[in-house]
Specification:
It is built from 7 helices and 7 strands. The chain is an alpha/beta fold. The longest helix is centred in the last third of the chain and has 21 residues. It is globular and about 50 Å long.
Length: 184
């Protein structure tokens, strides 16, 4: 593995159960905050074929974590070389090295809201039930708390447009403070 360069911009991981609004928040942040780049890990998996096959029960790829981490390592290092910060979104978080991120946000949604969003996406009954159950059991939040330093992990609600806008504004303020604190 290549060493990570000293960053001049923060790297943020936005994670949570499918349907909580990760990509919406991440892409909005990247548009709003200069020199921050959004990486949707699902797109990276597809583009770089970081999978070993298909799980037809859940209509999803079987992730090749090693290949994904190798691709992502290059992206993280390249962003640092280019003085860019990253906003990474993915439904899982425990596979990424802690050293990559300065902030880990776990988006949460009420199960009724999540159920409706997943229904609109056309998820099968089984896939929708599995994801709602993961949200109830706070699987992603527990993964984040076990994988990263407690001071960088934050749980935030993502049920309404107003909550998303508030979250984006708070994250933008956090980024500004990070720049001040890190003298960049």
């Amino acid at each position: 593995m290549m060493p990570i360069r000293q960053r001049v911009r923060p790297n943020i991981l936005i994670t949570g159960t499918p349907g909580v609004g990760k990509t919406t928040v991440a892409s909005s942040l990247a548009e709003k905050i200069p020199q921050m780049k959004h990486i949707c890990v699902g797109d990276v998996v597809k583009t770089h074929k970081c999978y070993e096959g298909m799980d037809f029960t859940f209509d999803s790829h079987i992730l090749d974590e090693e290949k994904l981490l190798n691709v992502m390592e290059i992206m993280v290092d390249t962003a640092a070389k280019e003085s860019l910060g990253l906003i990474v979104d993915f439904h899982s978080c425990d596979l990424f090295p802690e050293r990559w991120f300065d902030l880990v946000l776990v988006l949460r949604a009420d199960t009724e809201v999540l159920f409706d969003r997943l229904t609109l996406r056309g998820y099968s009954d089984k896939k929708r039930a599995e994801n709602v159950e993961c949200e109830i059991m706070q699987v992603v939040l527990d993964e984040a708390r076990e994988s990263y330093a407690p001071e960088i992990v934050h749980e935030i609600p993502s049920n309404t447009t107003q909550e998303m806008v508030s979250n984006i504004n708070r994250i933008e303020q956090w980024c500004q403070q990070w720049l001040i604190d890190n003298n960049t």
